[in-house]
Amino acid sequence: MSAMPRIEDYAIIGDCRSAALVGRSGSIDWLCWPRFDSDACFAALLGTSDHGRWLIAPCAPARITRRYRDDTLILETRFDTDDGAVTVIDFMPGNDGHPDLTRLVRGESGAVRMCTELVLRFDYGVTVPWVTRQEDGTLSAVAGPDRVLLRTPVSLHGENLTTRGDFVVKAGETVPFTLTHGRSFHPPAPPRDPQQMLAATEKFWRDWTAKCRIGGPWAAQVKRSLITLKALTFAETGGIVAAATTSLPEQIGGVRNWDYRFCWVRDATLTLLALLNAGYFEEARDWREWLVRAAAGTPGDLQIMYSVTGRRRLTEWEVPWLPGYARSRPVRIGNAAHSQIQLDVYGELMDTLHHARLNGLDLSESGWDLQKAVLARLEKIWREPDSSIWEVRGPPRHFTHSKIMAWVAFDRAIATAERFGLDGPVAHWHAIRDAIHADVCANGVGPQGAFVRAYGATEMDASLLQIPTVGFLPPDDPRVRATIRRIEETLLVDGLVRRYDPVQDAKGAGGDGLAGGEGVFIACSFWLVDAYVLMGRIEEARCLFERLLPLCNDVGLLSEEYDPAARRQLGNFPQALSHIALVNSAFNLSQARKPAHQRANATA
Question: Can you say whether the dihedral through the CA atoms of 176, 179, 184, 189 is positive or negative?
Answer without folding.
Answer: negative
